[in-house]
Amino acid sequence: MTTEVTTLTLESGTQIEIVPLKTRQFFRLMKIVTHGAGEAIANLNLDLAEEEFVLKLLATVVFAIPDAENETIDFLQSMVSPVGLRTGVILNKQDREYNANLWAGLDVELANPEIGDTISIIEAVVKREGEDLQALGKRLMSMFSIAEKTGQLVPQEAAEADIPEQAATKPSKSKKSADEE
To answer: Residue 174 — pLDDT band, cuts 50, 70, 90?
Structure first.
């Protein structure tokens, strides 16, 4: 994944940095799309040109937000840091308080961000990370294909055909109990 620094200015004027997408942030992104757009992400064509893939992924994430509200806020909070943090091996009390105030202000803004800020942050992440996400998707699909060919995964149609008919027609325990009374 990229290490390029992206800086945005929120509608309030607060400046933020988009941090690199790493494992935890990736899982938070996946929670958004799997909770809100599972079928759409499963049908996302990984063989599209990069620009078209990024636009379709962006649309998928944005349209998934209403069904993944908390996941989206968690993702946004994990993807940004305030601009101007003081750094060093050892910070004095004044620098630690300054940093704590920057983080506190950002926490307040991202608890219920402006809609434009939400879209801007997601857009910046997806555009910056799109190529890597597309490559990762292709890699994962290749791994699943190999696992299926070697018998480590059961193809979906076969898994559905293996469901015993009597399990589908057998009354549930609660219905059985009601009938016995």
So the answer is: very low
Residue type, 159: A
Residue 164 forms part of a structural domain: yes
Region 59-68: mean pLDDT is: 89
More confident position, 32 or 154:
32
CA distance 67 to 88: 41
CB 53 within 8 A of CB 103: no
Locus of tokens 């799309």: 33
The parent domain of residue 100 ranges over: 6-180
Residue 121 lies in a domain: yes
Q: What angle do CA 153, 35, 110 make, to 5 degrees?
A: 135
The secondary structure element, H or E, covering residue 7 is: strand 6-9
Residue 1 lies in a domain: no
Overall number of domains in the chain: 1
Q: Is residue 65 part of a domain?
A: yes
